[in-house]
Fold:
Amino acid sequence: MNSPRGRVTLKDIATLVGVHTSTVSRVLNPNRRTMVSDEIAERIVAVAEELGYRPNPLAYGLKTNRTGSIGVVVPDIVNPIFPETVQGIEDILIDAGYMPFLSNSEHKAERELRIVENMRDQHVDGLIVASGSPHVAILMACKEDGIPLVLIHRTWDDPEISAVSYDDSLGARLMIDHLISLGHRDIAYIAGPLDSAGGRDRYFGTKDAAQAHDIVIDERLFAFADSNTEEEGARCCRELILNGKSFSALVTAHDSLAAGCIGVLAEHGLSVPEDVSLTGYSDTLYAAMMTPSLTSIRVPYYEGGAEAARLLIDRLQNPDAPVRRIRISPELIVRESTARRFAG
Amino acid sequence: MVSERVTLKDVAERVGVHPSTVSRVLNPATRAMVSPEVVEKVTKTARELGYRPNPLARSLKTRSSGIVGIFVPDLANPMFPEIVRGAESILVEAGYTPVLANTRNDRDRKLMLVDHLRQRQIDGIIIITALRNDPVMETCRENGIPVVVSDRGIGESDLPGLVIDDDHGMRAMVSHLRALGHRELALISGPQHLSTSASRHRAAVEALSEQGIELLPDRNACCADFSIEAGRKACRFLIENAGNITGTLTTNDQYAIGAIAELYAMGRSCPKDMSITGYNGIRHTQWLRPPITTIELPKREMGMKMAKIMLDRLTDPKKEIERAIIQPTLVVRHSTARVF
Structure:
């Protein structure tokens, strides 16, 4: 069908379907579609498509203060957990007719703030911020402008902010329980950055879980990584070996840290799992590909992202929707890198 | 705190310049027209006064939003985040807002995303794609949106962007394997309807032929996607069908990772029973066991280069189209060894 000359307007569609212009407007706005019956909505969408109708979201944005864009801020797209989170967010948003505006802050508070400023300037309808340590200024800015915000990866003390987080203390406990059931008691630990919620919760969770089994981890068996990277894992592993206190299990706060350990252990004549059981966290795609394959904690990042998007859509469609905080449980995935401790 | 909206004029008055100068400074495309001292004064004052342009009104008027889109086929492939980071660093520094679009190689999603950004008066799009005719490019062409593309083979396109010298990369890899005594070689490559896969496949076949090695049909495994799983299957196929191969080339690190895992699952090991090579140089190749011999692409530099080409186009649309040639390098690790 040839498209008619001139821009197709809401009115053209309304006339053809035989409804009021405002009904068409409601149907074509994902926030308000629920106010119209399914049957009429379907007819309007079909006619709009037929005529090649395209809303002008800028003019539309100035008038209704709605643009259909959702700002999504992640701290580090290189860490594989964030691409997974982003996919969950995108799938739900796009299905509901919203467009994700994705930005990467590189863990820099200054840049995170600038991104959020930019997104406010672009009049996004809402924000999803995935960050281990969100800038307080962001939370304030969103409040000031009344932009609905959902945090993911951590919660905030403010009871007015919806959040999706993961139960990292539980994950840490599942891993320690697993190792203890295999007879390990000399357990070393490489912690992730303690200024992120995940790094902190896993660290304290590990200590608490060990204590529950009457094990106090010697301080020479702790090392602290500045980032969740293989390089830092290798550095920390070297440090632990140099400390001179022997261990039969090495627990790490991230798969990438564990990946960095294998080579260093091998350099010192230690093989996994015969001499040392090694564990990761997050169960990234590469955990299963390592040799030996890595025992890890699976965190449903995709589901978490999807959940955050659902929370935000709820808020957009109903500003009075209650604030919700969802905490997702991880699970233990046992592979080849952990084994029973040999007697003697 | 002042509750009234700070205007362009307020900023201009405070600095002592004309409002149009302030406007130029705040638009990244025209910023270079103003002296660096004035730029600094204006941006500082604008920040102090809390001036925030209304980009929606601005976009309607100037048809510019300060947004540059970066389209990636799949953020979960570790290759792409590194490229994106390089591009972002240049764009952010120049005052643009990079917006990522993770297309998952889904045609509908691409069209929706590009349409939405077009309506927001996006300034330009950097497209990282393996498709010869990406629908995003068509939309951009129709709407006069500047594009910069990655990953074209030599002579395949006249769009501004990058050309990766895969002939050089594959030649370096085949020479390396030949020097280790390998002659019985197989190839795992990607979907042949995609530009990068087809050009790498061709480059590999030619590099082998230059060394007097003909790639036999049962030693030529093509995968349907770029996953690790596809690499596993291809490796199994080769072991079951290809006879006594001593080495396998791949066109993508994921395939190499999958192939090594499958070899191990079949009770053999790399490189003792088979040398396996990657391509792209994602960071995992350095850390997996064995660390993987691969062809490394300078991912961060590729992103930076694409962003620079984009900035050039935005400041001077008449400037000659630039196509930068990217030279990959051979990185020898432990997944390749001498034939016994």
Observations:
- The radius of gyration of chain A is 25 Å.
- Chain A is about 45% helix and 15% strand.
